[in-house]
Amino acid sequence: MSKKFDIVVIGSGPAGYVAAIKAAQLGFSTACVERWVDESGVVKLGGTCLNVGCIPSKALLDSSHKFSMAQSELSQHGIQVSKPKVDVAAMLARKDGIVNQLTSGIAGLFKHNGVTSIAGSGKVLAGHKVEVTAPDGEVSVLDSEHVIIAAGSKPIEIPPAPTDGKLIVDSTGALEFDQVPKRLGVIGAGVIGLELGSVWGRLGAEVVVLEAMDTFLPMMDQAIAKESAKIFKKQGLDIRLGARVTGTEVKKNKVEVTFQTGDATHTEVFDKLIVAVGRRPVSDELLASDSGVTLDERGYIYVDEHCATEAPNVYAVGDVVRGPMLAHKGSEEGVMVVERIAGKPVQMNYDCIPSVIYTHPEIAAVGKTEQELKAEGANYKVGTFPFAACGRALASNDSEGLVKMIACADTDRVLGCHIVGPSAADLVQQVVIAMEFGSSAEDLALTVFAHPTVSEAVHEAALAVDGHAIHIANRKRR
User: Fold this and answer.
1) pLDDT at 364
2) Which residues of the chain have pLDDT under 70?
3) Which of 67, 70, 108, 207 has the fewest CB within 10 Å, making it most exposed?
4) Burial of 342 (0-12, 13-18, 19+ CB in 10 A)
């Protein structure tokens, strides 16, 4: 059986479903192929992000933060509560309810916009056709003018710690613990490891994070990484750098982990172990040998700056291509590709993609780090402002962290902003907008910020770039 569409999208994660909806809005007949189905065979839209990633993890992060507040912070506000208890089942049910609401919302948007949802695994054939293998094994071919590959990514597995779905789990399994483990091990101190470790740490687990690298959060500005490490240590996260896991063994319903630090070998025993060492693109079994689409040595689909592959009329977006594995990056790539198919001269600004770690406090960044600029030999200037000097942050009892603003010393143009602190994810977005319009630090300094808000920390950091901050003592400049 063959069906004809203007655009076929493979994958319904943030990159795929956004591309499909945008394509339908622009008048293209559109199909979205998704291999993930529930027990009854109904397509589960939303990909990793909505089902077992961004959304459910944030639901648990928020629930665990509220529990932590009830335990230790409300009393500082003069609010006395009896000893709070954790109902893990209720917490997970709330998380699942949010996921179901959002995934069914995508199904509704598909129906409203006229996107055809197809259950099955998609494979790109020659001539921009797509072969679909349905869950029951039936094979069909979709004839399409254009194909957008948005197959996403999956957790990386490591030989020393093979997951079993029970005691040794990946990020998906870490969202389904039916009780708080007394002692939790996490392999990897990246975004996923820190977020999941924070969830269960707040709920009462003793958390040990084993990170093979010697530098904490090497992709972040190191002033922010250093401040973050200090905060996490105070929260009780035991983060061990330079700890390379060499083996695991399950004994009496426990996990024994062996790891090396330098020349020394160590062993730790945990009730549960989370393997969070990163993700890799889902590109295996995705391309026919004559599809014309090529992969690099790491399994990423090769694309140009507009996400076009080497095969005519075939595009790839999101986690299967170069760049950060971020939902919002994939979504915007999907929109860009569809608009270019429609003849619009659009492109993405990859210099203004924000990144966030949703711990508490949050860590957020956009643009270049000071280390990157120093390596480039750039002429730059820096302004910082601590949340401890921000009235609204103090009033909220949420004053840990700082804002760091970096600008070009010659043009004053903002080159980057790095934040650890309350609402960092939302604060950095203000600077993303400013950078998108080529703003200078002075532009932000001259902007009126409402008082009292935590946004004032961004304002003061911009002022501090030239030594003009009001609410801290400025460093004397030569």
Assistant:
1) 98
2) 1-2, 477-478
3) 108
4) middle
Sign for the pseudo-dihedral over CA of 48, 279, 22, 132: negative
**Among candidate residues 422, 477, 478, 476, the one with its CA nearest the CA of residue 453:** 422
Side-chain half-sphere exposure of 39, counting CA atoms within 13 A = 0
Tell me which DSSP letter residue 75 carries. G
**Backbone torsions φ then ψ of 422, nearest 5 degrees:** -60, 135
- Active-site residue, selected from the candidate residues 77, 112, 266, 451: 451
Query: Which of 330, 358, 367, 329 lies closest to 220, judged by CA?
Result: 367
Task: Indicate the pairing of strand 139-149 with strand 2-10.
Answer: parallel
Q: Classify the C-alpha dihedral 250-254-260-264 as positive or negative.
A: negative
**Amino acid at site 35:** R
Contact between 284 and 296 under an 8 Å Cβ cutoff? The reply is no
What are the backbone angles phi and psi of residue 273, rounded to the nearest 5°? -135, 125
451 part of the active site: yes
Cα gap 34→44, rounded to integer Å: 8
439: its two tokens: 């703003």
CA dihedral 230, 402, 220, 245 (to 10 degrees): 20
| Angle formed by the axes of helices 222-235 and 191-202, nearest 10° | 20
Structure tokens at 176: 């389904």
Give the CA radius of gyration of the chain.
Answer: 24
DSSP 8-class letter at 309: -
Query: Are residues 185 and 255 in contact, defined by beta-carbon separation less than 8 angstroms?
Result: yes
- At residue 181's C-alpha, the angle toward residues 172 and 421, to 5°, is 70
